[in-house]
Amino acid sequence: MQLTRFSDISLRLLLYLASRDHPLDATVTARATSTLFQVPYTHMVKVVYQLAQHGLIVTTKGKGGGLRLARSPESIGIGEVLRITEPGKSVIDCFTQPCPLRFDCLLKHALDEGYNAFFVHMDKFTLADLATMPALKQLVQLSA
Fold first, then answer.
1. What is the dihedral of CA 53, 55, 61, 65, to 10 degrees?
2. Boundaries of every domain in the chain
3. What is the average per-residue pLDDT within 15-27?
4. Distance between CA atoms of 126 and 94, rounded to whole angstroms?
5. Quick one: CA torsion of 113, 119, 124, 129, rounded to 10 degrees?
6. What is the pLDDT of residues 102-137, one digit of tens each?
7. Is 77 helix (H, G, I), strand (E, B) or coil?
8. Can you tell me the distance from the alpha carbon of 94 to that of 108, in angstroms, rounded to the nearest whole number?
9. What mean pLDDT is reported for the chain?
10. CATH number, domain 5-143, options 3.30.470.30, 2.60.120.260, 1.10.10.10, 3.10.450.50
11. Which residues, 6+ apart, have CB-to-CB distance to 3 below 8 Å?
């Protein structure tokens, strides 16, 4: 299984926000984070929009505006983020490309169980758990 680029950018942004000294107050801009993570600005804007729509970040327009976490890093689970950012509910789709085995397929069942187990495992981690990486703290200090 491979996560989408969208999920990757979302997690990077959220971890970056969570690693700030005062994550519920510290504001950064989408442009600055897109530069920092070497991500096209248009991609970052899409990520910011979706995360704001789901209540994970707050965006403020105008001078002094930007984005920040909407909730404490301890209350945002990695599994929750991935459920929002990953597009599908299963590893393979047996209906858009019909398969004669689709109604009695053990492979699809096994893959779906593994996919669900991945999310259950990721539910064990929060942004606070992962935002303590020394390299991430250094990145925050360099960008300040």
1. -150
2. 5-143
3. 88
4. 33
5. 150
6. 777 888 888 889 999 999 999 999 999 988 877 776
7. strand
8. 8
9. 88
10. 1.10.10.10
11. 82, 86
